[in-house]
Amino acid sequence: MCRFFAYSGPEILMDELLHNACNSLIKQSKSAQKTHLPVNGDGFGIGWYPTHDDPEPGTFVSVDPAWSNKNLLQLASKLKSSHFFAHVRDASGGLSVSLQNCHPFQHGRYLWMHNGLLDEFDLYRRDLLAQLNDTLFNAIQGSTDSEYAFALYLHNLAQQVERFAGESVDAMQSALLACIKQIMQLRNNKGAHRNAFMNFAVTNGEDTLVTRFSSDENTQPSSLFYAKGQLRRCGQGLLCIENNQNTDEHAIIIASEPLTQDRENWIKVERNHMVIARANQTVKTMAIPLPYQRDL
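Request: output the structure for the sequence above.
Response:
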């Protein structure tokens, strides 16, 4: 499975979490701890929101392993951001290793990542495409189930924006729940019964939503954790997260694995739950209703 994280907080150099942390994402690209396949060498990507007045994020992706790409280390040591995504890829299901298939995916002000696999995706790929308007259909450039799921999310978001009269966190949350529900319905309609892992992450540059979801009740989803507090140097100069009274100094990090050495400050997300982070101020979780329940 892939590994990723989302950061929201005071401006920092991106290499603090990508490279310098004791369990940095670059370290996870070759020796992840909480997955059966520790190597994630099929490309990487970062997406960040500029510090100047620009609502759309920049992205940098590559098919190189994250641990060997000189440009990643150079850029991350120079770029500061208060809100960014990062992802290292393990290409599953025989999908090609290409720039178009590297995460995060970007559309307008939104970034999207996926850790997981929509197994038997070929059975219902055409049905998913049929849900999309021409703009979203033509925006798909790669071949991953992850990018198709992003397009379906954007389709649902457009509907929820009308319902909530704006691109609020409530609209994002409803769109993400609807996206999962539709994928489950499409799978059921085509008899796709093998497990679907849906650890989705989406942000608009301020609010971030991340899911930990598995369609098989007997199978654990991919790992997911979050932490909230001030990033600082602690023992041996390593990063740690410390709570204090000044919440403006807090960061919220949602990650496939804890990035810092103080594991007690990382909270494990329960299976089939969503994490909702409002900038760097609040973070909460909610259960994802199973798709057969009427209140989804």
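Residues 169-189 form the longest helix (21 residues).
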